Structures are given as C-alpha cells and as structure tokens.
Amino acid sequence: MPHLCLNAISKHFDKFTALDSVSLAIPDGAFLALLGPSGCGKTTLLRLIAGLEHPDQGEIRFDDQLVAGDAVFVPPEKRRVGMVFQSYALWPTMTVRKNIEFGLKVAGLTVQERNQRIDEVLDVVGLRGLDGRRPHELSGGQRQRVALARSLATRPQLILLDEPLANLDAHLREAMLAEFRRIHSLTGATFVFVTHDQDEAMAVATHVAVLDRGRLQQLGTPEELYRQPSSSMVARFIGRGRTLPVQVVESGAGRTKVMLGQQLLDMPGEAPTGYGWLCCHASDFKRVPEGGHLKVELLGQVFQNGVFLSHCLPTEIDGDVVSLPLEERLAPGTSIELVLTGGWVIGDGGTGQTWAGRVTGRSSTCRSAVISVS
Ligand SMILES: Nc1ncnc2c1ncn2[C@@H]1O[C@H](COP(=O)(O)OP(=O)(O)OP(=O)(O)O)[C@@H](O)[C@H]1O
Ligand SMILES: [Mg+2]
C-alpha cells in the first residue's frame, strides 16, 4: 500500500486553477522531488498534504487513513507531518534547543523525553554542541539543519521540504543535499522535497514528479524521467533535453519508425502515427564526417569541463537548438553532420504543443534503409 496517495486533487483560488486533478502515490520511505516551473502549484500541493489547505476535490490518504476528502479533514497537528521552509521560520530569540523543544512541548512530552529527543536529532543533523546558540549566531546551512531537526524531533511520518536550499550558496547546497540524503536513510521517513532545480532533484530523489500549470505531467524514477519522458514538457525540462519534430510512421512493441526530415529512423518509444517528438540529450548526438541523420549549423561554443559544448541549429528541419560536446574549437557557421545514438519517441497528443507546420525541409520520399537506433 502506498504511504502517500493523492487521488484527483484539485485546488482553486477564486477562478484560478492551482491544481487540476493531481493523482500520485509513493511508497513508505520514498524521497519524492516535486519539480516544475514557478507557479506550477508545488507549494500548494505541499500545503494540501500538510493540511494547511483544503482540497476542492479529491482525496489524500496516508497509508489507509483518509486525511482529506469527502466530509473528512484531519487538521495539520494530527497528521504527523513535519514541514521545512526556505525561510527556516525559526524563533529568533530562542536557542537551538528551545526551537527544537517547542513542538515537543506542544505534543505534551515530559522534560526527560524532550531532552532525549533533542539530543537524538542534534546528533542526526550534526549540531551537537551548538544547542545553546540563537539563530543569528549560526550560518545559513546550520539554520537549515535546525529547521530540519525541529521537524524530525516530533518523529513525523512525512517530512515536507519547500525549497529548503534556495537561500544557500552553491557549495553549501551540495553539502546539504548530501546531508538530506544521509538523514533520509537514517530516519526512514518519507520525504517530499520541492525544488526549482532539477539537478538537485535528480541527485537525491527516489521518485520525481513534474508539475506544469497545476497538472501532473509525469511521476517516475529520475532515470525514467530522463530516458523515457512522457511529454515534450518533461523531455525539455529534464536534463536539458531537446525535442526534434518527427513524423511517426509505424509503432509497436517499444519501437517506432519516424521520419526526421528526410531520414527514416527506427527508435525506442511508442507513439500514434502522425506528428511526434524525438526526445534527446547531448549524449545522444555524435558528430560524423558525412551521412549523418541531422544536418546542423554551429551557432557557438562554450569551453566547459574540458570540452567545447557546442550549440547547433538544425538546417533541414525547423527543430530546437541541439547541444553536444565537441573536442575541437570550430568557427560559428560551420556545417556539421550528426548521428543519433539514442533518443525516445513520444506522440504529440494531449500536450497542446503541436509542431504541425514547423518542418521546413520535409520530403515525402523516404530513404530506402531504415536506420535503427538502440
Ligand atoms: N492563497 C492564494 N491565493 C491566490 N492564489 C494563490 C494562493 N496560493 C497560491 N496561489 C497561486 O497558485 C499558483 C501556484 O502557486 P504555488 O505557490 O503553489 O506555486 P509554486 O509552484 O510553489 O511556485 P514557486 O516555485 O514560485 O514557489 C500561483 O499562480 C499562485 O499565484
Ligand atoms: Mg513555492
């Protein structure tokens, strides 16, 4: 049985639909990252799970317990949920110890139980010895640990983190991410982690949910979202993916024949015949001297991690700019041929982002050989 289960959750603010029939289920002990552009509904979804908002429609269950649904609403203090915000929300005049103790007092624990829990969570977050300090005497990362310790102390079944790293510098974010992962495996609690930053999400999550304009686009493992996106939005959003417009000719048993410009390719994925997308990443392109699947013109290069990350515009189809690492510096305007060594075909249906009319160099004649890409 899933630990957290949302069934067709909708939330409106006046006439605005913040969440539109979102359903998802994650197992006990999962680390779910909620990803999506600003305003897509991530915080609203967390607040609904925490019980800080009422859904207009749908149900929320923790294991087999209905916490929100028809005529049922379990208040936040009875949900055993801990929340950590971007702003830490610590009491500025209280010491670290008092900040952590506050929720335990409210929960009615004895002094002895409270002290035992506080020492336990200070160890977990690595803040032993700093418990007498006030928030202004701590660094940003230490404050974030206090906020996490305060949530962990009440031993919640679910920890909700709303962009907890947004105020930290890049170096500290990385260190704190590793901390979150360690604390997650140590406590065994289920974490739901909201972030703008997909690298952050992919690094820590066991499950990733991508939201767009209040709708769930896809829920899966980081690898599934990267390799098998189910919509063009997810394909572009994850791993700096690119989508090339294709014509789906034939599809079945996990393989699809598509026309990419004048090339007939056999690719992984399934899609209805008609317009579709070929989803790729930089690692799916390889430069060849001639006979490539895609002709492009070099727009520019950036020297990064020892290679020239090269941005190129397809010349025979009206596709997005594609990027790939090249070994050498080349002049802008250079013509390059690329073969595809990987990719994933999806249909165009349901996204409202039809590419009809975008292909400029499409030919009605196929090359006789079908090029198969595994
Ligand atoms: N209390 C509210 N009243 C009216 N509109 C709201 C309210 N809360 C959120 N919204 C709207 O709902 C939408 C989703 O907001 P939400 O805060 O969930 O987005 P988000 O994905 O967390 O964005 P960000 O990444 O910027 O934090 C936004 O358009 C927001 O303006
Ligand atoms: Mg938010």
Observed structural traits:
single chain, 374 residues, alpha+beta, Rossmann fold, 2 domains, binds adenosine-5'-triphosphate, ATP-binding, ATP hydrolysis activity, nucleotide-binding
Going by CATH, what is the homologous superfamily of the largest domain?
P-loop containing nucleotide triphosphate hydrolases
- Report on the biggest sheet: 6 strands, mixed
Which spans have pLDDT < 50 for at least 5 consecutive residues? 350-368
Report the top-level CATH class of the largest domain.
Alpha Beta
Oligomeric state of shown chains? single chain
Strand content: 35-45%
In the CATH hierarchy, the architecture of the largest domain is 3-Layer(aba) Sandwich
Give the number of helices: 8
Strand order of the largest sheet: 7-8-9-3-10-11
Class from helix and strand fractions: alpha+beta
* Number of individual domains: 2
Structural overview:
The protein has a six-stranded mixed β-sheet, with helices on both faces. Strands 21-15-12-13-14-22 form a six-stranded mixed β-sheet. It has a five-stranded antiparallel β-sheet with strand order 2-1-4-5-6, with helices on one face. It is an alpha+beta fold. The protein contains eight helices and 22 strands. The protein is globular. The structure holds adenosine-5'-triphosphate (ATP) and magnesium ion. Adenosine-5'-triphosphate binds next to strand 2 and helix 1. It comes from Rhizobium soli. Belongs to the ABC transporter superfamily. Keywords: ATP-binding, Nucleotide-binding, Transport.
